[in-house]
Amino acid sequence: MFNNQKILPAVRTMKEFDRMLKTSFEYGVILNVHINMLASLVDYANRSGKKMFLHADLVSGLKTDEAGTEFLCQTIKPYGIISTKGSVVTTAKQKRGGRNPTRVHSRLKCLGTKH
Questions:
Q1: Is the CB of residue 73 less than 8 Å from the CB of residue 53?
Q2: Pfam families from the xrefs (predicted)?
């Protein structure tokens, strides 16, 4: 599923994020981030060849409702979204599509997406 990567490093701080970008890991998870930092973190990760999942429940300043989920899918466009909230998963699955669909995960379990 993750090109045989058995560990998904989770980053909580900028220091951890910078350290993760220097590793050989292709996939990672962004935790505990402020909404103002999202676009630049995802963009920087993409330019560094990293595919980052975003834990929607842990984004400071983001309400995890339909509008917040649409914002993540349509504006931020992380590689994937993780959430424990069914409404976030449902909305994200509805909003994915096109050339680079957002992968949607709930409770860290893949829901019908293939890489």
A1: no
A2: G3P_antiterm
